[in-house]
Amino acid sequence: MAAVNLNFNQFSYDSSSIIFQRLSDVEKKINEIAKRLDRKAPPVFTLLNRNIAGVPSAGGSCVKIPYLFLIKTEDIPDKLKIKGIDDPRLQSDSYLQEVAHSTQEFMGLPKSSLNFIDKETLRVFLKYISDPVLSEKAKEFVLSHEVSHIHHEHSSKHPTFVKSLGFASVLIIAASLTAILGFSVPFFIVFASAAAAFVTTIALIKIYERSQSHAREKEADLTALKASPQSREGGIYLFETFQKHQQQARKNNFLSKLIYSPSGNNRLLTLTHPTESDRIRYLKNAK
Prior knowledge:
By secondary structure, this protein is mainly α. It has one domain. The protein contains nine helices and three strands; from the N terminus they run H-E-E-E-H-H-H-H-H-H-H-H. It has a three-stranded mixed sheet with strand order 1-3-2, covered by helices on one side. It starts with 17 loop residues before the first helix and ends with a helix.
């Protein structure tokens, strides 16, 4: 088993600290998941992300764990636990800051102030962590999802198609310069043609990358179910909680109405991920 990295961001923790124990537990679980997918899988390392962040992220053979992900339902003092998804305290900056400081103190981290993104992360975290059973199943689904990315080597795959389009874009520019310098072709015609071709090339790259990203995320979701069948309920619960939170957020400010659809899907996240509705649907229907 690989050793837990305890010096991330120049902070270190001894073996008796909560962070050490929680990271060790998570790393053990991650490697158990990896072995279910491939008995010969090399060790997967964990790193602590001291930011509040939302969910773990994978790259290479490492999974970066946000400190908030290590918090369990019972770690939050009763006075700070929310009373339902519409708890009015969730709109209070001072309440959210109190929760943040409480969790930072519990983990032995230096206290820090929240920004807008942190507040949204903390709001949805408090909603899903309110269920002690489903929240742990949701965490197992997320860890299985990230291990699946590593298993399929998603971060190291650069499609030949994208490389070819990038090369084609360079050729378009080179050919245009040659035409301008070597022939009596009107500059604006060559420039307009090159610009149109360049924009089209970039658009094709983005469309292709989006489709590939969606396919990889879906593959990681479905592979997570194979690695941890018991986490299906947690994955569905997580995305349903996101939807409920995002539908509620639409009522609070205009910006949220732009970011979140009426059904509670995150429009920005769809640039790289399937919608929450799609993920709930195929997780429910997966054999």
